[in-house]
From TrEMBL:
Gene3D superfamilies: Carbonic anhydrase. Its EC number is 4.2.1.1. Binds 1 zinc ion per subunit. PANTHER family: CARBONIC ANHYDRASE. It comes from the Bacteria. Zn(2+) binds at C43, D45, H106, C109. This is Carbonic anhydrase. InterPro entries: Beta_CA_cladeB, Carbonic_anhydrase, Carbonic_anhydrase_CS, Carbonic_anhydrase_sf. The keyword Lyase applies. Belongs to the beta-class carbonic anhydrase family. SMART domains: Pro_CA (SM00947). The lineage of its organism: Bacteria, Pseudomonadati, Pseudomonadota, Alphaproteobacteria, Sphingomonadales. It comes from Sandarakinorhabdus cyanobacteriorum. GO terms for molecular function: carbonate dehydratase activity; zinc ion binding. Pfam families: Pro_CA.
Length: 233
């Protein structure tokens, strides 16, 4: 099992390297608990690790990862299955009191592609049925984009659905009463972004224009601005 061996070797490097360098930080986090300011909802895809993309330290980000970085619509009925993502969102917002929720999508998402191509349509659990049921959350957007792509074959349907699903997840976040209330009080801000694996480009949703805009990496000429907000960070 060379893959698992590589993990254990990585742990040794971590313990003798980064862990030693950040020992004080880890000790403080163990004593005082975590107080991350940001909840990130990202895909389980092994190529999209938010702690790497945003170069964060331990304790900075609370992360939920699932297939295609989806947020389900608020559903208080406990008989509708286990609400894993909703539980993590509830904890981050009501207990940790994060100030931002970022839905981080990515290019070339397998879940989005499967939805678009109907790979697991009518599949049984164990054969793609769970994926199909999970991805059915974006079925209306998928159907709209499929129809548009039939009329205009030059449309990049996968990219369009990747962006649409981020917008939909942000809309679904607002269906949680405690999120809508925190946002109305100005204590919580909802953000969207898409990471392009091949280009390394991060496109951030500008709430003013409604568009995803590539973030410049030039520190000298362009200070980082939070799109749709006045204050620089
Ligand atoms: Zn993905």
């Amino acid at each position: 099992m060379p893959e698992f061996k590589a993990l254990l070797e990585g742990y040794r490097r971590f313990r003798t390297g980064a862990y030693q360098e950040q020992r004080r930080r880890y000790d403080a986090l163990a004593d005082k608990g975590q107080a991350p300011g940001v909840l990130v909802i990202s895909c389980s895809d092994s190529r999209v690790d938010p702690t790497r993309i945003f170069d964060t330290e331990p304790g900075q980000m609370f992360v939920v990862r699932n297939v295609a970085n989806l947020v389900p619509h608020f559903d208080p009925d406990p008989t509708h299955g286990q609400h894993s993502t909703s539980a993590a969102i509830e904890y981050a917002v009501t207990q940790l009191k994060v100030h931002h929720i970022l839905v981080l999508g990515h290019a070339r998402c397998g879940g989005i592609k499967a939805s678009l191509e109907g790979t697991f349509d009518n599949a049984q659990p164990g054969e793609g049925g769970f994926i199909n049921r999970w991805m059915s959350q974006i079925a209306p957007a998928r159907d709209t984009i499929r129809a548009a792509a039939q009329l205009s074959p030059d449309i990049d349907a996968c990219s369009a659905l990747e962006l649409a699903s981020i917008r939909l997840s942000i809309d679904n976040l607002r269906s949680f009463p405690f999120i809508a209330a925190a946002e109305a009080r100005g204590e919580l801000h909802l953000q969207g972004a898409l990471f392009d694996i091949a280009e390394g480009v991060l496109r951030v949703l500008n709430h003013d224009t409604g568009k995803f805009e590539a973030l410049s990496v030039d520190w000298e000429s362009e200070p980082v601005q939070v799109p749709g907000q006045l204050k620089a960070v």
